[in-house]
Amino acid sequence: MEGTQMKKEEDNRKAKTDGEVVHLRRKIGLLPAVSFIIGTVVGSGIFIAPKGVLMNSGSVGMSLVVWALCGVLSLFGALCYAELGTSFTKSGGHYTYLLETLGPLPAFLRLWVEFLFIRPAVASYVCLAFGRYVVEPFFAPCVAPTALIKLVGILGVTFVVAINCWSVSLASRTQVTLTFIKMFALVLIIIPGVIALAKGKTENFQNGFEVESLTLDKLPLAFYNGLYAYGGWFYLNFITEEVTNPNRNIPLAIIFSMVTVTVFYVLVNVAYYTVMTPAELLLSDAVAVTFANRALQGLSSLIPVLVALSCLGALNGGFFAVPRMLFVGAREGHWPPIFSMIHIRRHTPLPAVLLLYPLVVVMMINGEIYQLINFASFSRWFFIALATLGMLIHRYRFPLHPRPFKVPLAIAVTFTVVCFFIVGLSLYSDPWNTGQSCALTLTGVPVYYVTIYRFRLPHKWRRVFDYISKQLQILLEVAQQEVQTY
To answer: pLDDT per residue over 214-225, tens digit each?
Structure first.
């Protein structure tokens, strides 16, 4: 009887046209993939993080070194993820690679921290930057009301969530458009800086390396701020199942994107220091606006708009990618089943997108921008280091596993060691925020053993969860994926 029912379901599925079958489709080509990475990396970080990098590196010269090294380190990590993305064809990024190389517990903990605080903290940071660049020009030179900044940030994240719930194609086209806008914004900053430098305005670079102001305990925080601005190079791996010809397009998109971003970031910081003194940069909460008021007086009102759109692009990329990790985790049985469902007509992972939204809003209301960076970075970089360590272990254990793209061993080892070093040193530099992050990560261990490893919750609780899941499925009009896409 059961076999007959399964056969009938299979026949019904075959009878459906491709447009009717519920599954995520491969619609991301090379240009959208490049736009996706650049558009997610170039967000609020380059317009806000320079203050954090300078504050913790202690000098102009050292801050430029940190920006360049963060770019190289991010490129090394991106190359490692290019190998992982072509070796394992599932979406899900960090989660999938930890599951395949180190097992279910590290993979579950990555899901746990992503949903609990990494994604809400990262999105809140970008939303606050968006709100600040929209609101502050109307209040200059006075300080903008914090409540209004947060309200505008909430409106921004609501807009992005709506787009990602509505259509994969619309979210992808939005990302391409916003990427071109934000690259134009960077060019608009670089050109006057280069012109001023060519005219001999170099006084801010004299005595650029004041070594006495550099302290070892603050250096990891400088790297955290820089790496935060480069964050996003791994997001394409979250949507592997939606990339056309992934063995070719993933490595190409990653390499081209990260080299481009590194060059642009260093040039933007050179432009900042050409026009502004280090003291002025440290006093500014919106570095690009201060720069525009100095160097682009005729276009100064345009810069905040471009930066705000840049923040929207980073937010859109994050909300496009991260729900796919929760989607894959739920598909593997490591997350509530409702997260593995797709809208029956729009073919978007609607529950995973929607259920992240309230956490972002709550953290944005309670958060402060630099605390959010340090708070999220510990777990984020710890699990990235674990993923690349898992890649090295997998290489050793399964040397014959197909690897269409293979990163040089020296690059993989260097990246892994540096990540673990930065993570370890950050516990010394900022023990409160990183300690909180570490403690919240470990709370996932008992949750895993109670709910995943061996289900120990009372039967009544299971019935309640099943009922809620069923009602959400009906309300959101979602169903399980009907086609295997990996």
So the answer is: 666 677 778 878
